[in-house]
C-alpha cells in the first residue's frame, strides 16, 4: 500500500468523479482507475460505487475513510516534523449555502490564506442536503448551513452555531414595501417572489410562513448571492436571514435593503458550521474550523433589523440600510 493510493482515493471522493480526479492529479483516467482497483484488491473491499454520474464512497469505504484520513494526517505531521513547517499538503473543501458570505466567509478565507499560502481551499455553493451528504461521504471537510432554531439537529455531525439572525424581506429601496416598518405576508404576496430552491432551509421556511395562502413564485434560484443580485436588478423580493443582507456590498451601495416580517417576530435562523463526527480530523480542516471559531468570537453581537422609524406619523422610505439597530440577544452566538 502506498500513500499516493490513499491520496488518489480521497481525491476521487472529494471530486465525485474519476475523470475530474485524474485531471487534477495529472494522471490518465485508466491509470487512476487501476491504482484505485489495486488498493481495493489489497484491502479486499470495494471503496467506490461507480455510476455513470460519477463515483461516491461505498458503505464499506465510508467505514474505512477515518482510517485513511488518519494515515494521511500522520504523513502530514511527519512532513512537518521533517522541516516543512508551513505546508499543509491537502486541499480543504468547504460547502456553503452562501449565507453570511461578506461578514464571515470572506474574512476567514483571507486569514486562512495568510497563514497557509500553499493550501488550496475549494468553496462550493450547494444546498443543505447536498452539503450534509458530502460531509458524510467525505466530499466536504466543512459545511456552512442555515438552521431554524428549535429544529432537530441532524445526526452524525459536530455542529457549532456561528451566527444568529432572523428572516427578513430583501427588496430594493425604491420598492413601495420598503416604506413599511415591517412587511406583512399579504403584501409580500403581491410582489414577484424569488424563492430558494427545494433543499434550502429558507425554501422550507417560506412555505411554512405562507401556510395555505396562495403565492406566485416568479423565480427560484440557488443561494442567497444570486437571489440578492436578482432583487438588485428589480426582478422581485426574497426572504433571507438578516446576516446575509446587512453589510452586503449591494446593501452598502443602496441597491438592496431589508425589512422585518410583520407576521413573524419570533423565528431565528442560525448559521451553523458542521463537520462529520470523527475521531480524527485532517489538520488543514481543523485549522480552517478554528479560523471560523475565531471570526465568530470576533464579530460579537451583530445589528438586527428593526422597524423603520416613523417621521411625522409616516414610515420613512428605504435607503441602503435604514432602521438597523443593535438588539440584545441578536447577532453572533459566541462559540465556547
Provide an overview of this structure.
- With 336 residues, this protein is of the alpha+beta class.
- Among the domains are: 1-84, Arc Repressor Mutant, subunit A; 167-267 and 302-321, Periplasmic binding protein-like II (D-Maltodextrin-Binding Protein, domain 2, 3-Layer(aba) Sandwich).
- It has eleven helices and 16 strands.
- The chain has helices at 3-15, 18-25, 29-43, 59-81, 101-115, 128-137, 185-188, 201-210, 224-232, 249-252, 283-299, and strands spanning 48-51, 54-57, 92-96, 121-125, 142-148, 157-165, 167-171, 193-196, 217-221, 238-241, 257-260, 269-276, 303-305, 310-311, 314-315, 324-326.
- The strands form six sheets. The protein has a five-stranded mixed beta sheet with strand order 4-3-5-12-6, with helices on both faces.
- Helix 5 links the parallel strand 3 (92-96) and strand 4.
- Helix 1 (3-15) packs across helix 2, helix 1 (3-15) packs across helix 3 (29-43) and helix 2 (18-25) crosses helix 3.
- The longest helix is centred in the N-terminal third of the chain and has 23 residues, at 59-81.
- The two termini are 41 Å apart.
- 38% of the residues are buried.
Amino acid at each position: 500500500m502506498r500513500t499516493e493510493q490513499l491520496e488518489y482515493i480521497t481525491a476521487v471522493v472529494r471530486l465525485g468523479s474519476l475523470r475530474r480526479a485524474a485531471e487534477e492529479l495529472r494522471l490518465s483516467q485508466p491509470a487512476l482507475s487501476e491504482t484505485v482497483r489495486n488498493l481495493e484488491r489489497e484491502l479486499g473491499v470495494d471503496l467506490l460505487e461507480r455510476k455513470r454520474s460519477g463515483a461516491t464512497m461505498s458503505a464499506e469505504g465510508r467505514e474505512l475513510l477515518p482510517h485513511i484520513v488518519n494515515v494521511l494526517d500522520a504523513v502530514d505531521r511527519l512532513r512537518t516534523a521533517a522541516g516543512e513547517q508551513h505546508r499543509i499538503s491537502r486541499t480543504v473543501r468547504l460547502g456553503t449555502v452562501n449565507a453570511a458570505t461578506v461578514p464571515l466567509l470572506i474574512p476567514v478565507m483571507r486569514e486562512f490564506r495568510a497563514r497557509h499560502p500553499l493550501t488550496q481551499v475549494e468553496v462550493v455553493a450547494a444546498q443543505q442536503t447536498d452539503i450534509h451528504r458530502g460531509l458524510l461521504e467525505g466530499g466536504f471537510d466543512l459545511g456552512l448551513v442555515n438552521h431554524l432554531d428549535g429544529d432537530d439537529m441532524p445526526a452524525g455531525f459536530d455542529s457549532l452555531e456561528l451566527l444568529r439572525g432572523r428572516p427578513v424581506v430583501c427588496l430594493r429601496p425604491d420598492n413601495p414595501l420598503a416604506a413599511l416598518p415591517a412587511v406583512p405576508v399579504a403584501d409580500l404576496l403581491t410582489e414577484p417572489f424569488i424563492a430558494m430552491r427545494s433543499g434550502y432551509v429558507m425554501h422550507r421556511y417560506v412555505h411554512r410562513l405562507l401556510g395555505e395562502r396562495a403565492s406566485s413564485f416568479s423565480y427560484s434560484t440557488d443561494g442567497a448571492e444570486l437571489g440578492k443580485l436578482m432583487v438588485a436588478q428589480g426582478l422581485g423580493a426574497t426572504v433571507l436571514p438578516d446576516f446575509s443582507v446587512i453589510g452586503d456590498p449591494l446593501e452598502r451601495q443602496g441597491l438592496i435593503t431589508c425589512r422585518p416580517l410583520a407576521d413573524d417576530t419570533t423565528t431565528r435562523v442560525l448559521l451553523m458550521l458542521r463537520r462529520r463526527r470523527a475521531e480524527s480530523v485532517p489538520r488543514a480542516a481543523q485549522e480552517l474550523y478554528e479560523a471560523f471559531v475565531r471570526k465568530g468570537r470576533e464579530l460579537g453581537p451583530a445589528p438586527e433589523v428593526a422597524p423603520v422609524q416613523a417621521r411625522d406619523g409616516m414610515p420613512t422610505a428605504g435607503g441602503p440600510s435604514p432602521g438597523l439597530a443593535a438588539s440584545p440577544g441578536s447577532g453572533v452566538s459566541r462559540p465556547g
